[in-house]
Amino acid sequence: MVNPYNQDLDQNPANYQPLTPLSFLERASDVFPDHIAIIHGNTKTTYREFYTRSKQLAFSLAQLGMTRGSTVSTLLLNTPPMLEVHYGIPMCGAVIHAINTRLDPATIAFQLDHAKSEILFYDRELGSIVKEVLSHCQVKPHLIEFVDSEYEYKDAPVDLGADDYELFLNKGDSNYQWLMPENEWDAISVGYTSGTTGDPKGVVSHHRGAYLLAQGNAMVASMPKHSVYLWTLPMFHCNGWCFPWTMSAIIGIHVCLRQVRAEPIWQSIKTHKISHLCGAPIVMSVILSFDKQQDYRPDHQVQFFTAAAPPPENVLKQMQQAGFLVTHLYGLTETYGPAVINEWHQEWDSLNMTEQASLKARQGVRYLPLEHLSVLNPETMKPVPADGKTIGEVMFQGNIVMKGYLKNKTANDKAFAGGWFHSGDLAVMHPDGYLQLKDRSKDIIISGGENISSIEIEEALLKNECVAAAAVIAVANEKWGEVPCAFIELKVQHQWNSDEALQWCKSNLASFKVPKYYFFEDIPRTSTGKIQKYVLREKAKKLI
Amino acid sequence: MVNPYNQDLDQNPANYQPLTPLSFLERASDVFPDHIAIIHGNTKTTYREFYTRSKQLAFSLAQLGMTRGSTVSTLLLNTPPMLEVHYGIPMCGAVIHAINTRLDPATIAFQLDHAKSEILFYDRELGSIVKEVLSHCQVKPHLIEFVDSEYEYKDAPVDLGADDYELFLNKGDSNYQWLMPENEWDAISVGYTSGTTGDPKGVVSHHRGAYLLAQGNAMVASMPKHSVYLWTLPMFHCNGWCFPWTMSAIIGIHVCLRQVRAEPIWQSIKTHKISHLCGAPIVMSVILSFDKQQDYRPDHQVQFFTAAAPPPENVLKQMQQAGFLVTHLYGLTETYGPAVINEWHQEWDSLNMTEQASLKARQGVRYLPLEHLSVLNPETMKPVPADGKTIGEVMFQGNIVMKGYLKNKTANDKAFAGGWFHSGDLAVMHPDGYLQLKDRSKDIIISGGENISSIEIEEALLKNECVAAAAVIAVANEKWGEVPCAFIELKVQHQWNSDEALQWCKSNLASFKVPKYYFFEDIPRTSTGKIQKYVLREKAKKLI
Predict the structure, then answer these.
(1) B148-161: b or e for each residue (b if 16 or more CB lie within 10 Å)?
(2) Measured between beta carbons, which residues in chain B are less than 8 angstroms from residue A3?
C-alpha cells in the first residue's frame, strides 16, 4: 500500500537544511552582537567580532586553496584562536585537526602525514616543537603562528617563516559567504586517539554529531542562556567535548586559560562568575590545592564535569565544600566527548558521602543525544545481566558515534561489527541501568579462569592512605595463567612495603584478586595523563 | 579529487539512528523511572508508567492494524491520554491527528475524511459532537472513549459503541518492541490549518523536526532538568508546540488542565511549583482576572510563553507584577509551533514599561533549530531593507518547517516556491534584525498605492480605553482603490461613537491610514480565537 505521508512530501531547501553547529555562531552574532563571547586576560571579544573574525579566517584559508576535504591542523593552547579555528576552518569546508600539544614530535609528525595536513596553526610557545615536528614529517604545511599578546613568552621566538595569525586573519573578507556543509554527514574534524598501543587512529566526526552533542551538553547540564564557561579542559581533547559550539548555542561566555593553575581558576570563578567547567580529576586536585580559597569563594554554585576516572570520595567531599557540584561523565574520542552521564537523583543527596561517592563512581546512563548504550557480551552480542557483577563490553549506537577512522577500513569493520560501536571498555550493568567501568578489554586479568578487574584492585590500593597512584597489570603465571601485579606510587613522606601491601590487599580483596607482585616506583603516563600499561607490562617481564 | 573524509566512512546502525522524540521518553523511563511525569487532579503517573502505558497503547493500536502511514485521530482535552497518544500512536508507526475540539462537526468530518482516519480517540464530554461528526463523514473510524475519573461530567454519556480507553490500553503488551521510524523524515503528525478561507490544509510534520523543536524549546527557554509545565496551551495546537516531547527530554512534570480557568491555574502554580506555561494572550487575561492572586502568589518566577498576538503593555506590566516573565513567540502550524522568539536583552530591563512593551511587541528572531528566517519581497525574493518600515513576507528555511501539505501538491509548490517557506504573514525588519508582523498578506490594505497595515490601525484603536477589540479590513473605494474599515467591540459600560473614533484615529495615525467607516458590534472569531476577517468583509459589503 502506498503511504500517503510519503507522497509529494520530499525534502527541499525550505524544509531541510544540514545540521551544523556553525549556524549557532551566526545566530548568536545576529541576535546578541554586543554580548561578550570570549574573555582572554584583558581582551574581550563580542559575538559580532567572533563571527566576523571566523568568517575572515575562513576566507583567508579558502584563499590558500583550502576546500572540502582539506585538513587544517592546530598546535594551540586554550586561547581565542583555538575557538576561532573551530568555526573558521569548517566554514571554508575544511576539517579541523586539533593536536594534543603534549605529544612527542614524532607522533605529531605521524598525524600530520596521515591526515595530509596542509596548514598548521601554532602558538609561538610551541615553535621549537614545531621545528622538530617538521624535521620528522613528509608534508610541508603552510605555517601560521599565533603570538599571544596576553602572555609573556619566556623563550626567544623560533623563526620558521610562518605567517602571523592576526595579519593572516585580517586579510580576510568579513562578508565572506561561508560554506554550509553539503551534507550533515560531512566531516567537521579529525582527532587522533592517544594510541597506547599501535599507530594512533584518526577519528572523523561530522557536522550532525557535533550539532547534536553541542546541544546535548547544554541539555543534560541544564546550562541556561548566558552561562559562563572556563576552559580548563584542553580544546584539543575531542574538540573540547564540543563546548566551543555549545556556548554559541546558549550565547554564553568562553573564559580562556593557557595553563591549568589554581589561582587563575579561582580568580576567574570569582571575577567572571564562572558557571561551568570541565576536566580530568587532576583539575579538581589543582583547584583544591589552592590555599587561599576563602579569598575567592564565589556566591554561586559552580558545575564541574569530570571524566577519565571516577572522582574519589575525599575529592568529591572537598569539592562540595568548596562550592562545586561535580558530575561524572564518560566518553571516548569516538563519541565526540561525553556520551554517558552519571545522572544524579535528588533523593541521593540525603545519603552519606561514602554512599554518594560510590553512586557517583558509576559512569551512568546514555547522554540525551545518544540513542542506545549497552553492556554486551561481545561473543553473543547479548546484554549482560544487570547484576552489577557480570562484565561485558560497553557499546554505543547513535548519532554521536564517529563517522569512522580515517583511511582504516579494517579498524572500522572491527569497531562497528554487529551494528554497534565497540568501545573496548569493560563494564558491569547495575540493576538500576547505570553502568560502571571495570577495565579496558586489554587490561582485564584472567586468573584461574576468573576475570579480574585491574580497576577494582587499583581502587583497593588507593584506599590506603600511603598510596598516591596505582596501576595493576596481568603477568603470566604457569599455574593460574595470569596473576595481578601492582605498581604503586607512594605519597611524599609515606612508607609502605610489599608485605604491608600484600596484607592490605588480603584484607580488602577476594583472595584470587590479591596481586602476587608489588613494585614501588613512578608510573609512566601518556601526554593526556593515561597510564601506559604496555610500558609496565614490558617492565614487569624484566622484573619478574 | 577524492575527498578522503568520504571514503569508507558510511552510515551504519552504530553511528546513525533516525532522530525521533520518542527516544526521549524511553530514556526518561530508563533513568528516572520513579520521577513523576504527569499530574492530573489527584492522579500521578511516573515515567515508568507513562512509558509502559505508551507502549501498551502502541501495541493495542498495532493489533487493530495500525501501521506506518495509518492516521489515528483524537478529540481530547489536555488530559493524560493526550500525552500518551503523542507517544503511543507514533510508536506503532502511525500518524497523530489531534483535532481542535472547538471546531464545528462538518469541519472535523472533513479532516477525518481527508486524512482517512482509522481510529478516533475522544473524551466522553465530546460524545455528542462525535455523534454529529460521524453523520457527516465518509470514514468510519474505530471509536475509543476516554472517561476522565478526575472530572464530573454534566451530561449523560452518548452511547456510540466505543471501546473504553483504559480497557483498550490495558490489553496492550507492556514489553512491546515499539517501532523506530524507518527514516527521520517519516511523518509523526498531521494537523489542519484553521482555514479562514478555503478547505483546511493538512500540515505533515516529521520525527526529525519534532525532535529538534522539542529540544529547541528547552534550549531557548533555558528550561532546566525537572521543570514543571502547566498545560494551558491546547495540545491540539501544533501538538502543544512539541512540549509533550520537550518535557521527556528534561525529565519534567506535565500538569494537566481540562479547562483554562483562573483558580486552578493559580492553585497549580502554587501547589506544583509550575515553572513554565504557554498560551495566547487570552490566557494571560484569565490569569490576571483572578481576584485572590495574593493567596496563591508563588515564591518563584514563572515563565509564560505567548504567541498569536503581541502582549499589550498593561498586560505585560500586570504579569510582571504578578511574578511572571513573559516571552513573545511566533510561529505557524507549518513550523511545528514557535519558530521565532523575541530574544530579550538584559539591558532592556532598564527601559520604561512603554519602551519594553514596544520592544516585546516584535516577534523577533529565529528559534535556535530554525536555520534561516527572513523578510523577503515575494516578487524579487530579496530581503527588504532592515528599516522597520518596508513590508515584505516572512519566510523560513530550516528543519522545523513542515514536510508539506497532505495530498496537496499545488499548495506545496506554492508554499515552497524559490526554496523558502512562504508564511503569508507580512512584516518589517528592524535595524537590529528583529522582525515585526504587520499583517496577513490578504489583510493588507492598499490605499492610494500605499500599503496600510490593518494591525497598526487596530493597535491605535486598542490604545483607547473604551476599546475591547478591533478588526480593520479593506473595503473597495472608487477614489483610493481600498480604504480601511473598522469593526470595534467596546468594553462593558463604555460609550464611544463613530465621530469620537474618527477623531481618535486622526490624532493617532497618518491621515491616509484613518478608517473611513466604523461599526460597533461583536467581532466573529474562529474556534482558535482568530478573527474571521472574511466574515467582516462580507458584512461590510452589505453595510456600506
Answers:
(1) beebeeeeeebeee
(2) 68-69
CB-CB under 8 Å, A224 with B224 = yes
Q: Considering only alpha carbons, which residue of chain A is nearest residue B365?
A: A31
Instruction: Find which of B9, B114, B273, B381 to mutate to test the A interface (most A CBs within 10 Å of its CB).
Output: B9
| Gap between the Cα atoms of A191 and A188, Å rounded | 10
> How big is the CA angle at B168 (ends B115 and B250), to the nearest 5 degrees?
75
Which one of B2, B7, B15, B219 would you mutate to disrupt binding with A, by most A Cβ within 10 Å of its Cβ? B15
Domain range summary for chain B, segments of one domain joined by +: 16-26+42-174+181-207, 444-543
What confidence category does residue A282 fall into, taking pLDDT thresholds of 50, 70 and 90?
confident
SS3 A45: strand
Q: What are the cell numbers at B287?
A: 490569569
pLDDT for residue A374: 98
The reply to whether residue B401 touches residue A14, judged by beta carbons under 8 angstroms, is: yes
Write down the mean pLDDT value for chain A. Answer: 93
> Rounded to an integer, what distance in angstroms lies between the CA atom of residue A87 and that of residue A54?
6
CB pairs under 8 A between A and B: 172
Contact A416 B225 (CB under 8 A): no
Q: What is the ipTM of this complex?
A: 0.88
CB B19 to CB A399 under 8 A? yes
The reply to whether residue A116 touches residue B4, judged by beta carbons under 8 angstroms, is yes
pLDDT 10s digits, B447-465: 877 778 788 899 889 889 8
Domain A1-221 has CATH 3.40.50.980: yes
Residue of A nearest to B70 (CA): A3
Say whether A27 and B365 touch across the interface (CB within 8 A).
yes
Residues of A with Cβ-Cβ distance to B93 under 8 angstroms: none
Contact list in B for residue A433 (CB cut-off 8 A) is: 30-31
How far is residue B141 from each of residues B62, B64, B111, B188, B237, measured CA to CA in Å?
Answer: 15, 11, 12, 19, 22
B322-356 residue pLDDT tens = 999 999 999 999 999 999 999 999 999 999 988 99
Nearest CB among B68, B116, B421 relative to A15 is that of: B421
Q: Tell me whether residues B219 and A215 touch, CB distance under 8 A.
A: yes
Q: At residue B528, does pLDDT exceed 80?
A: no
- Grid coordinates representing B166 are 483504559
B416/A224 CB distance under 8 A:
no
Written as nine digits, the cell of B379 is 516578487
Instruction: Report the distance separating Cα B63 and Cα B171, nearest Å.
Output: 10
Per-residue confidence band for B310, with pLDDT thresholds at 50, 70 and 90:
confident
Determine whether B493 is exposed, middle or buried from the number of CB atoms within 10 Å of its CB (0-12, 13-18, 19+).
exposed
Chain A residue nearest residue B367, CA to CA:
A27
The CATH label, of 1.50.10.10, 3.30.530.20, 3.30.300.30, 3.40.50.300, for the domain at B444-543 is 3.30.300.30
Chain B residues with CB-CB distance to A220 below 8 A: 225
| pLDDT score of B443 more than 80 | no
- pLDDT tens-digit series, residues A366-420: 999 999 999 999 999 999 999 999 999 999 999 999 999 999 999 999 999 999 9
Is the Cβ pair A13, B419 closer than 8 Å?
Answer: yes
CATH assignment, B16-26+42-174+181-207: 3.40.50.12780
Q: Do B219 and A224 touch (CB under 8 A)?
A: no
pTM: 0.89
> Which amino acid would we find at residue A302?
V
Q: What is the pLDDT of residues A420-471, one digit of tens each?
A: 999 989 899 999 999 999 877 677 787 877 778 788 899 889 889 899 889 9
Contact (Cβ atoms closer than 8 angstroms) between residue A44 and residue A38: yes
Q: For the CA atoms of chain B, what is the radius of gyration?
A: 24
